[in-house]
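User: For a benchmark we're assembling, each entry needs the component sequences followed by a predicted structure for the full assembly. Here are entry 17's components. Please fill in the structure.
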Amino acid sequence: MSKNIIFYFSGTGNSLKVAKDIATAIEDCELISMGKLHNLSSTYERIGIVYPNYAGGMPAVVERFVKVLDLSVNKSSYVFAVCTSGSGTGGGITKIRKIIGDKGGKLSYYESIRCFSNYVGLYAMGNDADNKAKAQSQATKQIIKDIQSFAVKPPAKSNPMELMHGPFMKLLANRDKGFNVNEACNGCTTCSKVCPVGNIKMLDGKPMFLHHCEQCMACIQWCPKQAINYKDKTQKRGRYHHPDITLAEMINKN
Ligand SMILES: Cc1cc2nc3c(=O)[nH]c(=O)nc-3n(C[C@H](O)[C@H](O)[C@H](O)COP(=O)(O)O)c2cc1C
Ligand code: SF4
Ligand code: SF4
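Assistant: Structure for entry 17:
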């Protein structure tokens, strides 16, 4: 059994990169995707939760995961959360603190990191992925130092955007009904493998969306043929994934 464990959720690799960097630095650390539930039966020194900001909050799958995470043998563990976002503001700050507190645990450390903005369903992808990746790595260094030394830095204040999270995410529910696949699709199955929540099934060599989409953008962003689009919005918006994260890492960790 490892001494440390980090749970992460990631569509385009920003959060996976942060989680990986922390895991490597603190050593003896398991890295587990929050796409599937996990039975926390052993005791850990440090428990980390790393996720992207979705409209001021946590992705719904992260909230569900943390809510059912059994902390009974980990009430004294050092629990930390790191949120990646395009703006640098944290998401789900008050909620995650409350969920962990309600279980008798304590969120000792919370930090957010500014990363590349990946929401291609809403806007065009920028052309500064390498610079953003460098800045992300730089910001992660301080967080690593803090976590190595068990620094206590609970979330100071909530993000006003958190109030928008519920209504905004309701608007996005079933948005995969607007996803379409064009003739460039070669049936490679990448999209179904990279989807962190198993929302894509291959049917007759083409992806079929099952309507429990988290809007993580992984399928649109990682399709090697750029064959998946949201309505007529994303055809010309470019594609992004973190330059240091490979498709194999995304898939292996799902
Ligand atoms: C559905 C969705 C909502 C998002 N909402 C916000 C937001 O409110 N504020 C923000 O700064 N970034 C927002 N982003 C950008 C992501 O938080 C950011 O790019 C994150 O680092 C992506 O992490 P990942 O690569 O691990 O998936 C959003 C992205 C998605 C897909
Ligand atoms: S990843 Fe793209 S090319 Fe591959 S099966 Fe999915 S839609 Fe088709
Ligand atoms: S269907 Fe696409 S956008 Fe939705 S959760 Fe799966 S990979 Fe993410």
